[in-house]
């Protein structure tokens, strides 16, 4: 069953407008969640806010947001003051520019969301915007309030819908030039050839199974065993490596790797 939209609003390009609905393209709902318990009683432990100076418990109605601007000095903002910072981008994705599809590096991509028309009458307008971007090889750039902040977003056509990526803020991305040398040393051609052969031997079709979570699967095994009051079977440890010191003859290691792959194929 498709998830319910967590955002509804309008997609707008100049005078073309259509109602749309959006939902996250990823989810961690199926990840294991743990509660903190009292080991003696088995009861859940609850957390409470307390005043850092007096130690008194704080009632929910007394909590307020505060911005620290000096040592032990805060500017307090009420919830309605934050909510009343009205922005046009709260419910409208107004595309104000387009850029080439391949001009935004992957490092700027943050969270993906699926965007779909939310009204049969608006489907044609939605399709026109989507298909025009696909035909021109462009993506749309807009701004939108999501997760309590206004964010730059990228609209990328995909199939019958549009993927809306929130983009990272400029101060969140570190320039790669600070980390990668301008002119890294070039590998020897024969070494490169052996690595290419090794890559070819490991080629496979992409599958979601490649990114499964074996730790969660093992935890689920343990939980099921404990639910049945049985002791979970212990997994055998991986054999220790006989690599010795860290000095590696890269050519010899590659030749042995390719030989092992050849034997696997036969």
CATH architecture of the domain at 7-29 and 85-172: Beta Barrel
Mean pLDDT: 83
Helix-and-strand structural type: alpha+beta
Name the assembly state: single chain
**Unreliable residue runs:** 243-247
Q: Which strand order does the major sheet show? A: 5-1-2-7-10-9-8-6
Q: Per the principal axes of the C-alpha atoms, what is the gross shape?
A: extended
Q: Report the CATH C-level class of the domain at 7-29 and 85-172.
A: Mainly Beta
Termini separation: 44 Å
Proportion of residues in helical segments: 10-25%
> How many strand elements?
10
Q: What does the main sheet amount to?
A: 8 strands, mixed
GO molecular function: double-stranded DNA binding
Family: Belongs to the prokaryotic Ku family.
Domain Ku: 55-192
Pfam families: Ku
